[in-house]
Amino acid sequence: MDTTLLRQLNDDVWHPFPLLYARLDAPAFLDLYSPELIRAGGPAKQVFGFTEYADQTEKWFAELADRGSSVSITFRFVERIAANDVASERGIFQLVSTRADGDGRTFYGRFHTYSRRADGRWRICVDYDTDERSATLEEEFLAAADVDDVDAFKE
After folding, report:
1. Are 49 and 55 in contact (CB under 8 A)?
2. Rounded CA gap, 40 and 124, in Å?
3. What are phi and psi of 114, to 5 degrees?
4. Which of 19, 113, 129, 145 could form a disulfide with 149, with the two C-beta atoms 3.0–4.6 Å apart?
C-alpha cells in the first residue's frame, strides 16, 4: 500500500473532519463529502443522499450552537485500503458531546467510508456507521491505529 495516499486522505478528509465538526462549520464540513454521497446507518438506521445529510447536519450543528453545547470526534482505524483514486477505510470513532453546563457524554461507533479522489482531492462518497457491539467499542477504539499511523497499513 502506498502510504502517500493515506497521508493525502488525512490531509483532505481526516485532519479537517474533527476540526470542522468541533467548529460546527456545516458548509466546510459538508464539503468533505461528494455531492453523490450515500449515507447509511447511524442511530436512526436510515439511508439517504447528500441533500438529506446536509439538511440533517445543518440542523444538528445549529441546535448544538443554540444550546451552547459542543461536540468533538476522534477516529481510529482498523483497515485502510487505498489505490489510485479510490479508498475504503474502516474504524471506530469516539464522539464526546458536552452541554453548556459542562455535563458530557462519550459515545463510540464503527464506521466504514469509501472515498474517491477527483480534481486532486479526496471526498467521502459512502459513509456508514453503527453502534453494534457497543460493549467492546471503547477497548477496540484504544487498540486501533491512530489516523497518523499510516505505516500500520503498509503491506
Report:
1. no
2. 13
3. -120, 130
4. 145
Q: Give the separation between CA 120 and CA 8, rounded to whole angstroms.
A: 10
pLDDT in tens, the chain (155 residues): 679 999 999 999 999 999 999 999 999 999 999 999 999 987 788 899 999 999 999 999 999 999 999 999 999 999 999 999 999 999 999 999 999 898 999 999 999 999 999 999 999 999 999 877 666 788 898 999 999 999 999 87
Cβ–Cβ < 8 Å for 90, 107: no
- 124 CB burial (10 A radius; 0-12, 13-18, 19+): buried
User: How many residues are present in the chain?
Assistant: 155
Q: How far apart are the first and last CA of the chain?
A: 6
CA distances from 106 to 71, 72, 82, 93, 149 (A): 10, 10, 30, 10, 23
Which cell goes with 85?
A: 483514486
Q: Which residues pair with 118 in a beta bridge?
A: 121
The cell 502506498 sits on which residue? 2
Q: Cα(73)–Cα(94) distance, rounded to whole angstroms? A: 6
